[in-house]
Amino acid sequence: MKVKNNVSQDETVERWIEELISQLTLEEKASMIHGNGLFRTKAVERLGIPEIVTSDGPMGVRMEFQNDHWIALGHSDDFVSYSPSNSALAATWNPQRAYDSGRVLGEEARGRGKDVILAPGINIKRDPLCGRNFEYMSEDPCLIETLTVPFIKGVQENDVAACVKHFAVNNQETDRLMVDTVVEERALREIYYPGFRAAVQEGGTYSLMNAYNKLRGAHCSENKELLDQVLREEWGYDGTVISDWGSVHSTKEAAETSIDVEMSVTPDFDEYYFANPLIRAVKDGEVKEEFLDEKVRNILRMMYRLKMMGPEAVERKAGSYNTAEHRQTIRKTAEEAILLLKNEDNLLPITKDRLSMRTGDSKAVGQIPVAPRKRKIAVIGRNAEYCHAGGGGSAEIKALYEVSPLLGLKQALGGNAEVVYAPGYFIPGKKDVNEVNWQEASLERRVMGQEDPDSEEQKALRKEIRENRARLKKEACDLAGEADEVIFVGGLNHDYDVEGRDRDDMKLPYGQDELIEELLARNPNTIVVIVAGSPVEMPWADRAKALVWCYYSGMETGTALADILIGRVNPSAKLPETFPVAYEDTVTAKNGQFGLEGQVTYKGGIFVGYRYYEKEKVKPAFPFGYGLSYTTFSMTDLKVDAGCESDIAVTVSLKVKNIGSVPGAEVVQCYVTDCECSVERPVKELKAYRKIFLEPGETETVTLELPPKAFAFYDVDRRDFVVEPGSFLIQVGNSSANCPLQAEVRL
Ligand code: BGC
């Protein structure tokens, strides 16, 4: 009955769409399929068809711009909630948090009057240097799929479309507009496509953004194999494909491909490929009008789904932004996103007795009363007071506020501790390189931010940097020398984690390594906190007893971080990507990252992230899936049953117990190894996981169901996923490098 209803509903909608299309003129159709503003299309008022209003981006709804220039309006009504970046979200390993993040974003987007929010970004983290890694989730397709689907649902239940980006293989920023990505079919199917397939088939995304780059010779915007064959035919996608801004390069080619809306960064809207040039091409008989009809059809279907218009009157949600509930949700996600990577001697959390006022000191001097002494906490490092929301490229937002780590610590510690701060390292001021906004300039293929190293200006700058660096380092080390606790907060910022440019190397900038070494030499108990969006080399890691990693975690970063440092919150995040020891260890360093003469070949094939390190037996600094807690868990009683249902091949169950003394959460991770196979397969692959919260002493049985696909590889000859019968090893643990429970199963 339900199905029947849906069918008749769908039929009514499709009939209504056809009816509208039949009334539209060629010019009106063209007006609906290209930008009429930097973030909007044109309405057809005569027929009551509204414009589509889009906005970036992944961490919150971007500020308002002039319609035709990249100049922010500068009003006071576009401050928003600032959510954890996708890299932070992925570190939670919690689909519930992904759903919540999507819900907050969708509600805020709707509250700001948007129809499409240009998020989430889900490209694979192939290279640690990619400038936009902070916007992406993981190196692993399973983790991406399982977080993307609930994220989309959370967004779209607010009558706002998610726009999953960037389809496909946009894994580097260098030459992103033109680079031709050469990648084998199996790698596409097993590594680069699954997140997008899940977004379409399981998440039901209403829109999707094509990438700038080429895939095997053709720009993604006019790539028939990618958009017509894979996306539309194989995956059955009937939503809208929106071009990345300025990614369309032709009229006929693109118009005849399954891309629906052309957006760009320049104000000559009537001259976009899908505007006057397309109208002319149709009139000249070069392009059939049916291609425009199909685009309009997809757009109207999305409008119907968003309750923007339709055959019947329905109420659309109004949304809301900057609510207290959003801030609470964001804080909760941040708490689950901050990673504890090292904790020797249980240096963390900084317990109450290490922070309390020393009233007892007066006894030491007999009868003479001594005023209680406040504990001195030295917070060193610019990222302690740095606010990141306003940077990164199109992910920039005007956050209502951002609690810095320093503010968070002061808020948490109150008046009984003396928190002193020193910047410790010097960040040279940036010269305003372009008068034009970077987004407009981005289409000119110029490498942004490159200077002539031999210019007088650069020499003077280097001198200034040297002097300031020495001064700030001395000041910080002196301060650390007289403190009870030393917390270093450094890392990267959006000068490095940024759209349009990849990092040159994986090193910490601004002389931080030297500073950290010095701080650790002075005080071996220095707590090191790194705030960054992508991995850095940490040559001092062996000497740091306590190491905390914090991706850009939103407006409550400082609150959540402080709560973790003092133990009000028990860390439960796990790495969504491998942290290599050095850049030389990565697949991209070995096989080329940026490509020569406009081409990059993904030589590693399916061996990306831990699949690569495990195959090459390269020991990383911190493995995929790794992260510590203030408590410990045991995993026992693994049971593995080959199922008899068609959608469940194997059921895995085990017992997890919190054997420590504080409540905490553990992520049970299940990896599969194909023991014998006709093609080379990874040492193991993540196929399921579950995050569980346990009180001290509490035990829970965790059951994970593995579908047949968890055992399959993509067979290029058969052009399909296949499971080769034989034995498979199921490995369960709490990181890719620690899977103590293992069992074999025959399929
Ligand atoms: C980015 C997209 C973004 C668009 C609109 C492009 O530069 O690649 O991710 O959504 O701009 O700002």
How would you explain this protein's 3D organization?
The chain is of the alpha/beta class. 28% of the residues lie in helices and 17% in strands. The chain contains 19 helices and 24 strands. Strands 9-14-13-12-10-11 form a six-stranded mixed beta sheet, sandwiched between helices. It has a five-stranded parallel beta sheet with strand order 1-2-3-5-8. α12 (324-337) crosses α17 (557-565). The longest helix is centred in the middle third of the chain and has 26 residues, at 456-481. Mean pLDDT is 94; it is low at 1-6.
Task: Estimate percent helicity.
Answer: 25-40%
CATH architecture of the largest domain: 3-Layer(aba) Sandwich
Q: Which class best fits the helix and strand makeup?
A: alpha/beta
Q: Let me know the number of strands.
A: 24
Strand content: 15-25%
Within the CATH hierarchy, at the fold level, what is the topology of the largest domain?
Answer: Rossmann fold
Name the CATH superfamily classification of the largest domain.
Glycoside hydrolase family 3 C-terminal domain
- C-alpha Rg (nearest Å): 27 Å
Largest sheet, order of strands side by side?
9-14-13-12-10-11
Unreliable parts? 1-6
Given this structure, which CATH class of the largest domain is correct?
Answer: Alpha Beta
Count of folded domains: 3
Structure in a nutshell:
By secondary structure, the chain is of the alpha/beta class. The chain is 28% helix and 17% strand. It has three domains: 52-273, Alpha-Beta Barrel (TIM Barrel), CATH 3.20.20.300; 324-359 and 372-427 and 454-600, Glycoside hydrolase family 3 C-terminal domain (Rossmann fold, 3-Layer(aba) Sandwich), CATH 3.40.50.1700; 631-746, Immunoglobulins (Immunoglobulin-like, Sandwich).
